[in-house]
Amino acid sequence: METSVFRIPPYYYLHVLDQTTNVTRLEVGPQIFVRKDNEVVIISPERMITVPPRHYCIIQNPVVRDENHQVVKDNLGQVTLEHAEEEIRLQQDPFPLYPGEDLKQKVTLLK
């Protein structure tokens, strides 16, 4: 039987699929997440991506952000993605991958 309680430490995240609405959402730690009966944890707690100074990474299918840098969601609450696009992320605070985003190139030193 699958566990229903997940301890998400600081700087970790997980993806949860709501089978009623078929929407995958992001849960960010620190928190204790209790899975409901209609939910499935798609990605167990994973460490957020940290890009140190003089490094970069490439994200495929990045989320759409508005003018206030907030993630744009549709009317069902699912994040909106820029499909077939790539985003280069430089030094910044640790960040999670939203559902649908992909780490195309891991954190690499600038040359």
Write a concise keyword list for the protein shown above.
single chain; 111 residues; mainly beta; 3-stranded antiparallel sheet
Structure description:
With 111 residues, this protein is mainly beta. 9% of the residues are buried. Strand 2 and strand 3 (23-28) form a beta hairpin. The chain starts with a strand and ends with a strand. The protein has strands spanning 5-8, 12-18, 23-28, 31-34, 39-47, 49-51, 55-60, 86-89, 92-95, 102-109. The strands form four sheets. The protein has a three-stranded antiparallel β-sheet with strand order 3-2-5, with no helix packed on it. The chain has a three-stranded antiparallel β-sheet with strand order 8-7-10, with no helix packed on it. Strands 1-4 form a two-stranded antiparallel sheet. It is built from no helices and ten strands. Helix content is 0%, strand content 50%.
